[in-house]
Every structure is written in C-alpha cells, then in structure tokens.
Amino acid sequence: MRCLIIFLCVILLAGCSQEKTDKLLLELDQKKLEENINYDKIVFYKFAKIAVRSSAVEDTTIAEYQKFSKQTQSVLKTMKSVNPNSKESISVIDALLMYKEYCAVKSFVKVTDEDLFPPLSNGFVALYTGLKSKESLIPKISKAHFQNVEHAVLSMAVLTTRDLGQPFALYECSKTQPELLDDCEVKTLLEFVRGFLFFSNNLYYLSEDGISRNIKWLNKNEHIPLPYTKAFFGWGNLSDEQTHTAFHGMNHLFRGLDRLRMERKIDEERSLEDFEDFLKDMDKLGLLNELVWAVQSYLYLKREDPEKAIPALTKLKSSPLFSESEREILGQTIGYVKDRKSDVALKGVYDKAFMGKVATKYMFSILSKVDWEKVMRAQGVPHTKEIFGGINKFKELSNSVSSYTQTSTIDKGKTEITKKGGELLEKAKGFWK
C-alpha cells in the first residue's frame, strides 16, 4: 500500500510539473488579456463607442439595437454637444443621467461585440448628418478591413494621450483581427502594433505569436514596398529595401524582448538569436541608436566581454530618452562592468526589464511624432476630423464616469437638481434609490 501511494504521488507530481507548451501559454495570455480589459472605465468607453456606432444602424428592429438604443440618448446628446476643444466640463446632471443609462445596459455591453454594429466612422457620419450605412464608407474596402484599421489607429491615437493611455489602447488592440485581412503591408503593420502593445502590457506570448507571423511574411516578401511602414517609423530617408531590413530588425528585436521575459530556458536562448538578427539588420543599415546600444551591451555582458559593453552603455547614458535617475542607474551599471562584475550588472541593475524599458521609450518617442489624423486621411477615411474630435469627447466622458460614484459628485448632483426644479428631478428620479 505504501509503495502504491508513493507511485501515485510521483504520477501526480509529474503531471503538475509538466512543461508548459507554447499553445497553453498563449491561451493563458488570452485569458489575462480579457481580464485586463474588463473593468468599469473600459466598459463605459465601449458603451460610448457602441452608442455612436448604433447611430448608423439601418435596421432598427434587430435585437442588439432594441436592447441598447433606449439607453444611449444621453450619451449621444452629450457627444453632439461637447466641444472637444473646450475646457468646459460635462454638467453633473448630464453625467449622472449618462451613468444611469450605462448601468442599465452594463451587463449587455460586457458580452456584446461592438463590431456587430456599423464602423465608428459611419456612426459619426450618422450622428452629425443623419446618413446611415452599415458598410464601410470606402466601397472597395470591406467592413472587416475598415474597422481593423479604425481599431489599430485608435489604439495608437489613445496610447499617446494622457487621459486614456495604455488600458484603452489595449482594448482597441484586442479588437484588431489581422488574420481576417489578406497578406499585405497593412496586416503586417497591424501585427507589429499589436505586438508592441501586448509586450507593453506583459502579454509576451500573444506578442510573440503575432510578431513570429510577421517575420515569416517579411522573409517571404523581401521586395514588396512598405510605404505605410516607412511613414509610421519616419524612415523617409530609407529606400524600400532598407525599410524592409529595418522593419525586419524591429520585429526580431521585439520578439527577442518577448522571449527574454518568458519563463523557460529555451525562450531565453531563442531571444539571443533574435537579438543577433536585429543587430545584423541594423549593421547592414549602419544605424546606431538606443535600441542598438542596449542590445549590444546586453549581448556583450552575456558573453562575458565587458570591455566591449562599456562604449554602448556610455552612449545610452547620454541619451535624452532617460531621466536623471535612470542615467545614475546606467552609471552604476558601467561601474559594475568596469569592475568586471558582468553577472551583477545582468542580474541587478541591468536586468531583463531594462531592455524592455529602452525599447518602450524608443517606440513612444516615435509614436508621439506620428500625426494619426493624417494617417487616417491617407487611408481615405472620410470625416477623419470628426472622428478625432470624437476621441477627445470619449476622453471627456471617460474622465467624468470615473468620478460618478463618488459621494461628493452625487451630492453636487442633488443640489443642482434641486436648484433647477421639477423637470430635472423627474429625469433623475430613481437614480439614488
């Protein structure tokens, strides 16, 4: 009996310690993604977007529209009245009425795919002109393609805003579906955008999955022009061939960073191969920047060749991308390396997270320079000005909703309702029950 118990314990332990497969780790990341975008501020943002998109619904008898339309009136009224360039805040009354409508359909919003509705661009057109259409505004572009571009551009546009930022960008990013698009440059750029955002939110397996598809596509299509990629990165001075090389290198860099942050030994070994490929591409172009210096110094430290790491670390230390405190840390790292303590530099100051910080700072410096409104105009998206005005309105609504449940806000609302009389009291009846 004792032998049987020991045998069963060994079997159970073996099952528990079974190595996690790439597929399993990818599925775990997908669950983490769903959890990360399922909280109140994001759900309200989704609610506001569906409200606008539902404005373009032609068949108002469909079940999704019927369940939702009655609870969108305050949102749509506010969206039309708010001046995105004004510093004037949404009134407390409008805020509370909007929040009440949101609460009534919150459960529905959580489980509803916003892409069931017409594209956001169509929603804004319908909101301001009354013209309704469920299809893409550009006849030659399918709805799936069109809204993929919308989600991708919105993910980048909100990423660089102070009020929305990464959580909202992550939501938009989760809605892009590059696999529905034909193999082309736009699809590849979408995969990279998704990969960067997933990496920034510690979803390394999701990021690696898309970027690996990118690298395969780039390896098979070496001579395809990449005009959007060139504009995205500001590589106007590079030829088509050089742009391909540079983008190929950037994909290897971020896949390497993904793998560096993964938990298995094999992933770290793969990351070093990606970093080597990145440096080869940059060397072909003769490019030197913070990304190159960070990777060079890391590889030299891993190879226990600290003297070669010092010049790259010194260049990093003088980069305007870093704050004074970060420069001090780099100075400490150089001190460790000079004392031939590569292991301390790698495990301590110069850790795996540092590489990601350098890459993220570099990418944000690029993204902040991109005129996203111009990008959408270049894609042929009509009413681009209204859409970007809408983003500012979404920001205003989102900022307001975050404070709706605070006691001070509710008390202020009660006072304002009392002052303005019975009509408002009737509108807000039941809100505080």
Structure description:
With 433 residues, the chain is mostly helical. 71% of the residues lie in helices and 0% in strands. It is built from 23 helices and no strands. It has helices at 2-16, 22-36, 40-54, 63-69, 73-81, 92-111, 120-129, 143-159, 166-175, 185-200, 204-220, 227-233, 240-260, 265-285, 290-302, 306-317, 324-338, 342-347, 352-367, 372-378, 384-401, 407-420, 422-427. It is elongated and about 70 Å long. Mean pLDDT is 79; it is low at 3-18.
Structural class: mainly alpha
**Rg (C-alpha, Å):** 26 Å
Report the strand count.
0
Task: Output the number of helix runs.
Answer: 23
Q: What amount of the residues lies in strands?
A: under 5%
Low-pLDDT segments: 3-18
Task: Write the SSE topology.
Blueprint: H1 2-16, H2 22-36, H3 40-54, H4 63-69, H5 73-81, H6 92-111, H7 120-129, H8 143-159, H9 166-175, H10 185-200, H11 204-220, H12 227-233, H13 240-260, H14 265-285, H15 290-302, H16 306-317, H17 324-338, H18 342-347, H19 352-367, H20 372-378, H21 384-401, H22 407-420, H23 422-427
Helix pairs in contact: 2-11, 3-6, 3-7, 3-21, 5-6, 7-21, 8-9, 8-10, 8-20, 9-10, 10-11, 10-13, 11-13, 13-14, 14-15, 15-16, 15-19, 16-17
